[in-house]
Design brief:
single chain, three-stranded mixed beta sheet, about 80 residues
Amino acid sequence: MNNKWFHISTNPNKLTQLVVRVPKRIVKLATHRSLIKRLVRESYRLHKPTGYVAVNLRVSFLKQDRAIVRAELDKMMATLK
């Protein structure tokens, strides 16, 4: 499952696990990488999809886009249930 910012791959047959990958070559600052990981973990916690979920960041986004990215991430996580 893809959108502009994330690629999400799943395997419902594996144990419930979340893997978040935010490459340093895409997001240079550690504080920004941590912020993105927190956004993904919060969305995962709210929607609780089952099975293995791997979230990879494709491109960086601006601070102003955070609400839009969060809404898109929530929409993608909701479809994983």
